[in-house]
Amino acid sequence: MASVADKIAAANALRLAGNELFQQNDLHRAARKYHEAILTVKGLDAKGGFASLLGVPGVPALSADYTSAINEMLINCYSNLTVCASKSMRWEKCIQYCDKIIALDKSHTKAHFRRGQAHLRLGFLDRAERDLKVAAANEPNDSAIQRELQLLHERQKEADREQKAFYSDMFQRMKLSNDSQQQPMQTDNSESQ
């Protein structure tokens, strides 16, 4: 059975292979490598790693260094997957990967930024605003975050205009409908004489 250090090294090699494929713009194969790297270390951070999952008694918990290295590997791989998903415009997947990062590191700026970006592309303006504000609070001078916030504000204004137009049109139709029902019927008196 491979040691924890061996598994972390193998995962890192897979991640680096994914990075090479990403540089070649082979997003599908890069994503596959990142997934393989995740699977290589997934579960190792549980108390005692795989041995405890298999019921081997007396296996000590992982050291803080190993736990940190595993979490860093997971965050790096999920972060790379968010970029692959964004470039492929797979916004739902991007959100899922960001959720995994944020579960490991609640203040991860890039994950909040990318999740906010994905929510914005899907039209979930409130969710986008929440994430982008967290990202902006962490990195107030980041120009990409500021551009995305500007785009969000433009979309919010557009949504407000559309909503006002919708309700204005609806009330206008209701008024016309009520006006036509309140007018008395006029009869043609020219034939009755």
TrEMBL record:
Keyword Iron: no
Record keywords, A-Z: Repeat, TPR repeat
This protein's record includes keyword Repeat: yes
Signal peptide bounds: none
Record-linked SMART domains: TPR
Domain of life the protein comes from: Eukaryota
Matches recorded under PANTHER family: ARYL HYDROCARBON RECEPTOR INTERACTING PROTEIN RELATED, PEPTIDYLPROLYL ISOMERASE
Protein name (Swiss-Prot/TrEMBL): Uncharacterized protein
